[in-house]
């Protein structure tokens, strides 16, 4: 009994989380396209290798235009943590959502200000500079640490918890100005300071451990190759993958070679030195890159197709746009964050237990087939053409990628489809919102049409009447804890689920009502975009 009650509370608390994560995720495909195209065609190695200085060199019109695309895409990906912090606060705030978002914004900046200042003022800067890839510049801060999406979600959750707890707080008259919603940003600022000190102390130790792991993996042969790819991908949500891969790309951990009379260290440096010298590309160096192409070009689109086919038929139209645009971005540019974060937030098991494992096996396969394709930016089709196909089969063995890519399309599709259905994973389009099938009378059809017409009239009186009926159907104002409209439904948390009247809600045009514990979903389809604000306004009118 207590277990079911706990599960119900969890459902009620988290039913909005998926939607809030989708806010920044929906932005990533277009940002990824800008970033991928801009970075691929303005890379110094690409321009030099194909003697395109006159067309794409610095100062040319195309270079300037593509650089703008690159910068516009980069600003989104460089600040994903901030976007997720605000989105978490928006989604989980019980009321005064704008204030909650501001609190998370303040908390995020304060966390970075505290962390950056602590690094400098407590004498850690020189020591941390020795950990390659740890320190970076972002948000206007110099020599700070990128905590990735994890940092944003971390501070967002703390700030929204404080907001929900204290946004109605009352102080004595002398300081009453600082009470209520005015207190939320103050609480967010204090949370950011505490979180910044915590990150300044904890994050370097995590980074040092990851860096040390990288050195061990570099000496472990094919087993090391597997773990390199797994850890590299598993760290994406935490923003620590730079710390891990940088020694392989830029130091002797990734190999040493003598090219054109010079000693070159680091896998990426070796690959591009060999490309510039017209030599055969070392697969030992390229193995740290080539494994991405099968997954980015074929694996992710197949996973997206599996998620689409596993979505409920009435929801496929809703998820098609996100999955299709994200797949195209992955194929062309190798930007996979839209799909990876969708997978992660739908099911951590699907991300770390399945996707990262398949990703790691790709590294083993490209090593066994001695593929010599590298990249400057990411493992998309653009980089495969530039650094695999154009240099020629004799130098890169790029054709060996084709059977791996075909195999990975089938592998990702069937494994994802099996896992989603077997474990009932809540990937996009699989939310619990089906009601049991019933036969409907002609009078019900007429009543539905009447309610549809009432909703579309735009009359304030009819809008208020429908809103009042919806509130009554949810058990009355006092029974409603939170109410929010998403793409197709009202998501409501109620105090007493037994007070919800499905038939009354049906009379307002609802095509279904799902009750799971204290979480209620009232499904209206696309009409919810007008119904939701009207109900929220009606509840506000009652408050007055």
Automatic annotation (TrEMBL):
The name this protein goes by in its record: PTS glucose transporter subunit IIABC
Main location: membrane
Intracellular or extracellular location(s): Cell membrane
A GO molecular function held by the record: protein-phosphocysteine-sugar phosphotransferase activity
One GO term (biological process): phosphoenolpyruvate-dependent sugar phosphotransferase system
Domain PTS EIIB type-1: 464-544
Membrane-protein topology: Multi-pass membrane protein
PROSITE patterns: PTS_EIIB_TYPE_1, PTS_EIIB_TYPE_1_CYS, PTS_EIIC_TYPE_1
SUPFAM superfamilies assigned: Glucose permease domain IIB
Record flagged with keyword Transmembrane helix: yes
The organism's place on the tree of life at top rank: Bacteria
GO cellular component: plasma membrane
Pfam families named among the record's database cross-references: PTS_EIIB, PTS_EIIC
Keywords: Cell membrane, Kinase, Membrane, Phosphotransferase system, Sugar transport, Transferase, Transmembrane, Transmembrane helix, Transport
Transmembrane spans: 21-47, 67-92, 99-119, 139-162, 174-194, 200-218, 230-248, 288-307, 319-335, 341-361, 368-390, 396-416
Active site residues of this protein: 486
Classification via PANTHER family: CYTOCHROME C-TYPE SYNTHESIS PROTEIN AND PTS TRANSMEMBRANE COMPONENT, PTS SYSTEM, IIBC COMPONENT
NCBIfam families cross-referenced by the UniProt entry: EIIB_glc
PTS EIIC type-1 domain residues: 8-432
């Amino acid at each position: 009994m207590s277990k079911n009650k706990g599960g119900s509370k969890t459902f009620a608390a988290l039913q909005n989380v998926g939607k809030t994560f989708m806010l920044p995720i929906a932005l990533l495909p277009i940002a990824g396209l800008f970033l991928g195209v801009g970075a691929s065609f303005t890379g110094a190695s690409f321009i030099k290798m194909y003697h395109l200085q006159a067309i794409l060199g610095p100062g040319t019109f195309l270079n300037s235009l593509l650089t703008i695309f690159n910068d516009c895409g980069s600003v989104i990906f460089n600040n994903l943590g901030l976007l997720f912090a605000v989105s978490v606060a928006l989604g989980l705030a019980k009321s005064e959502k704008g204030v909650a978002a501001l609190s998370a914004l303040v908390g995020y900046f304060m966390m970075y200000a505290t962390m950056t200042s602590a690094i400098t003022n407590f004498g850690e800067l020189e020591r941390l500079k020795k950990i390659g890839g740890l320190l970076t510049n972002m948000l206007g801060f110099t020599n700070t640490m990128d905590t990735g999406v994890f940092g944003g979600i971390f501070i967002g959750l703390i700030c929204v918890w404080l907001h929900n707890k204290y946004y109605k707080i009352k102080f004595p008259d002398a300081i009453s100005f600082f009470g209520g919603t005015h207190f939320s940003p103050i609480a967010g600022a204090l949370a950011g300071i505490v979180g910044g000190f915590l990150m300044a102390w904890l994050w370097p130790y995590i980074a040092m451990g990851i860096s040390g792991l990288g050195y061990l993996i570099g000496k472990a042969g094919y087993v090391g190759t597997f773990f390199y790819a797994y850890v590299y991908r598993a760290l994406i949500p935490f923003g620590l993958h730079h710390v891990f891969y940088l020694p392989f790309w830029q130091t002797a951990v990734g190999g040493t070679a003598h090219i054109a009379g010079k000693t070159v260290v680091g896998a990426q440096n070796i690959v591009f030195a060999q490309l510039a010298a017209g030599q055969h590309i070392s697969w030992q160096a390229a193995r740290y890159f080539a494994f991405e192409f099968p997954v980015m070009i074929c694996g992710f689109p197949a996973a997206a197709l599996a998620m689409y086919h596993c979505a409920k038929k009435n929801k496929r139209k809703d998820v098609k746009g996100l999955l299709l645009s994200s797949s195209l971005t992955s194929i062309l540019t190798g930007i996979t964050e839209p799909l990876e974060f969708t997978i992660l937030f739908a099911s951590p098991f699907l991300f770390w237990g399945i996707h990262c494992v398949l990703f790691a096996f790709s590294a083993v396969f490209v090593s066994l087939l001695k593929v010599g394709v590298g990249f400057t930016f990411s493992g998309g089709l653009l980089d495969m053409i530039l650094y695999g196909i154009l240099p020629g089969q004799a130098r890169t063995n790029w054709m060996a990628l084709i059977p791996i890519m075909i195999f990975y399309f089938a592998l990702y599709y069937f494994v994802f489809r099996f896992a989603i259905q077997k474990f009932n994973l809540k990937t996009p389009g699989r939310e619990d919102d089906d009601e049991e099938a019933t036969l409907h009378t002609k009078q019900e059809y007429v009543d539905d049409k009447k309610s549809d017409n009432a909703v579309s009239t735009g009359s304030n009186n009819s809008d208020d009447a429908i809103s009042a009926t919806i509130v009554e159907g949810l058990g009355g104002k006092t029974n409603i804890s939170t109410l929010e409209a998403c793409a197709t439904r009202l998501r409501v948390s109620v105090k007493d689920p037994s007070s919800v009247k499905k038939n009354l809600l049906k009379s307002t045009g609802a095509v279904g009502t799902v009750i799971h514990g204290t979480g209620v979903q009232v499904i209206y389809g696309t009409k919810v975009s007008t119904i939701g604000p009207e109900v929220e306004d009606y509840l506000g009118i009652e408050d007055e």
